[in-house]
Amino acid sequence: METHLHALVFLLTVILLSVSCARGKQYISAVGDPGMRRDGLRVAFEAWNFCNEVGQEAPGMGSPRAADCFDLSSSTLKHKVTEADNKLGVGKPFPGLPPGAISNADLYAAQKELYLGSLCEVEDKPNPWQFWMVMLKNGNYDTKSGLCPQNGKKVPPFSPGRFPCFGDGCMNQPILYHQPTELINGDTLRGSFNGTYDLGAEIGGGLGGISFYEVVWEKKVGAGSWVFSHKLKTSKKYPWLMLYLRADATKGFSGGYHYDTRGMLKILPESPNFKVKVTLDVKQGGGSKSQFYLLDIGSCWKNNGDPCDGDVLTDVTRYSEMIINPATPAWCSPKGLENCPPYHITPNDTKIYRNDTANFPYGAYHYYCAPGNAQFLEKPVSTCDPYSNPQAQEIVQLLPHPIWAEYGYPTKQGDGWVGDARTWELDVGGLSSRLYFYQDPGTTPARRIWTSIDMGTEIFVSDSEEVAEWNLSNFDVILT
């Protein structure tokens, strides 16, 4: 009997150790700073015009790239990036800058990000990492400028249409003010980026009539997560603005770019094997046109399934976005099939086609648009805006719906919105493995490897001045 008990205890011990090891493998983080808990922060800033380029620097601001990276030792902050580094602009050399980029604002900004990344880099396994990225984007598009390609192809200027633009210069870069992180009262770390697109404005005199953005980061030393507090305000001149906090690839292309980038994802997550954990507290929603993304994931692969290689004529940016603003309607409907993906895949891998009006979950989709360079599209179809990325793009925009419950996503309007702050653990890998993305018939399915995971809002051509405010913390990408 005693021998049997010893054997049973031994067996239980082996099982517990095995489960412990298995759990250890389940909770590998893909980001360099899991849960945003590292006192020595790494955060950077990037601003883009409508087609994810720079075009022209704002006067006196340098290239629109900046970073705040430091280590904390014995109550002393050791900053890795100087304000002179942050003010570097076209014409000013820095280590590693190729000769051909010194006078080109687009190439200069891409190289400056790599340089700032080298100053901020943290050695780690399996790869070093650099920073969380604050991304700001101006939705104005001067169609007479010829600055933005059409699905990757250079096109001549054309007449204004549906894109906002107050006239010459509407695609400008913003003013950037940086408050370097400092230690306050011996126990609180705080810093910020803020500014406006209105180049002649003084934000100290009030925000009436002007655009504004701000990200403040704060943390108690040795405790908890960094809290990133965001604010974004549109204006009559700048009615379409975007502000996100991103975890991007540490090397290679991040979602939406055709330049080598730097970021926080030391391991690139691949569907279906990852989850995202994050705490979100929305203070103000940004009005009815605010497409607030609980999560936005971005990647790039060609229509034949091959990975992207920088050829903007054949690369395609792919996005999936969950919009939690309850004012956002489902454009996908039985009478709007062109706004729906051709089919929906359930958690048990059943396909429901969009013309199956009894079963297709129309309310789960705000909008689907196909890549403009795809050759075998199933009609009716809506193609994505061909100008707002350097290459063609495909977007799947989701809405809270009971069909997403198994993945931990919002199931009803209002979930996660103003007054409903919560920590989410989202099975992003599982859901993204079942979303429809276009691919040429007969080709090998693309590996869905995501190079950007971000959160924030896109206030989409507001009719009045709108303000969005939200706090984000505990951000982590967990490999399962």
From TrEMBL:
CDD domains: GRX_GRX_like. InterPro entries: Glutaredoxin, Thioredoxin-like_sf. It holds the Pfam family GRXCR1-2_C. Coiled coil: none annotated. This is Glutaredoxin domain-containing protein.
